[in-house]
Amino acid sequence: MKLLLLSVLAALAAAALCYESHESMESYEISPFINRRNANTFMSPQQRWRAKAQERIRERIKPAHEFNREACDDYRLCERYAMVYGYNAAYDRYFRHRRSGK
Length: 102
Hints:
By secondary structure, the protein is mainly α. It has 6 helices and no strands.
């Protein structure tokens, strides 16, 4: 009886491990890579133009603290100081006195 039970359990375990579901075959249907010609076809030219225009607007109306942070990111010592004390303190230390002196 034990031998029959063990053989049934072994058969069920083998069937469960060897079963190939439909989900495992989906990865073979579509290649994750597309060629260069089709890379940007999901966006129409109108949508691309609108996205570029919105990016230009965002760059123009960026808040002052964002400009300060970008200036600090370009200077290595300022960036290190900002990791410890914050971007406002780092910008004040490295750039604020230069702006007020002009």
